[in-house]
């Protein structure tokens, strides 16, 4: 994966930081890096764990949201430095390959990754063309591509796995090369799936761009029902990694997490207790209610 500059990493991964905790026993400090698509679910998981009364539920969580690729670079850089230690005790990625690569590169401190969710990709048109009846394509074919410049938001395919999935849809289903194709001007690229969603959601009219974008289903989810929120302004099409027009629209968005040992002030038992809660019946219910599978 292409490495970004430290400055860009800092800007991306420090965009949203949340401190959460409870007054229960076994209070420790836990730092967590989380892919932007999982923000809503992570807030709920931390709050639910804090209220559970389980061992280490009184821990204070510092949660940072950003792009999976940027977190990978930041962790690799920190661990490769002389005497370097991890800035994060836990890393929730938006794919399954990044945690595996970290494990391969730093096997003495990076634990075995575990699956915590599978995401879904959606094309959401807030004020743009109707995509709900356009089948798997979501777009016309390139010969009659009618979107305005900057109208379609997409996450950076290099650092954001949901951007990679969107790139695959464009190529496999629509025969559109992005980036580097004839239609690049039609797209507005954002660092994370979080900023991609924010950009589309900020649209206020049919001429306020971007008003169409590839987003995570979890971002349109009503976590009280586990379904797309209603009413939802505009239309959407949900992609699935199954055969469409003879081709899979995108690879499965398998999301793995990994524990990383060695941060000063970290307690392995506290980190492991929080992992156990994510995988518990209660934790899994929260994840499913946020439109993951």
In short:
The chain has eight helices and 13 strands.
Please give a structural write-up.
With 293 residues, this protein is of the alpha/beta class. Helix content is 29%, strand content 21%. The protein has eight helices and 13 strands. The protein has helices at residues 6-13, 39-50, 68-80, 97-105, 161-172, 193-201, 268-279, 281-289; strands at 16-20, 29-35, 60-66, 90-92, 114-119, 121-125, 152-155, 187-190, 212-216, 221-222, 227-228, 235-238, 253-259. The protein has a six-stranded mixed β-sheet with strand order 1-3-2-4-13-5, sandwiched between helices. A five-stranded mixed β-sheet has the order 8-7-9-6-12. A two-stranded antiparallel ribbon has the order 10-11. Helix 1 (6-13) crosses helix 3, helix 2 (39-50) runs antiparallel to helix 8 (281-289) and helix 3 runs parallel beside helix 4. The longest helix is centred in the N-terminal third of the chain and has 13 residues, at 68-80. It is globular. The two termini are 26 Å apart.
């Amino acid at each position: 994966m292409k490495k970004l500059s430290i400055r860009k990493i800092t800007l991306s991964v420090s965009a949203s930081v949340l401190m959460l905790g409870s007054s229960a026993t076994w209070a420790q400090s836990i730092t967590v890096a989380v892919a932007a698509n999982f923000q809503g679910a992570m807030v709920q998981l931390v709050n639910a764990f804090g209220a559970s009364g389980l061992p280490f539920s009184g821990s204070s969580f510092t949660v940072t949201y950003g792009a999976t690729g940027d977190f990978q670079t930041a962790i690799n850089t920190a661990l490769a430095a002389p005497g370097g230690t991890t800035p994060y005790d836990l890393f929730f990625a938006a794919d399954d390959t990044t945690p595996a690569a970290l494990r391969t590169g730093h096997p003495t401190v990076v634990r075995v990754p575990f699956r915590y969710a599978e995401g879904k990709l959606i094309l959401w048109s807030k004020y743009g063309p109707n995509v709900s009846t356009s089948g798997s394509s979501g777009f016309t074919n390139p010969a009659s591509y009618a979107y305005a410049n900057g109208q379609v938001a997409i996450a950076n395919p290099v650092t954001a796995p949901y951007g990679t999935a969107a790139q695959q849809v464009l190529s496999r289903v629509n025969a559109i090369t992005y980036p580097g194709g004839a239609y690049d001007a039609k797209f507005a690229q954002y660092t994370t799936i979080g900023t991609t969603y924010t950009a589309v959601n900020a649209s206020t009219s049919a001429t306020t761009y971007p008003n169409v974008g590839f987003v995570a289903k979890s971002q349109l989810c009503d976590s009280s029902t586990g379904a797309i929120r209603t009413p939802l302004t505009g239309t959407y099409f949900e992609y699935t990694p199954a055969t469409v027009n003879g081709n899979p629209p995108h690879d499965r968005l398998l999301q793995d997490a990994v524990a990383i040992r060695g941060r000063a002030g970290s307690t392995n038992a506290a980190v492991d207790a929080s992992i156990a809660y994510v995988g518990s019946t209660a934790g899994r219910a929260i994840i499913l209610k946020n439109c993951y599978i």
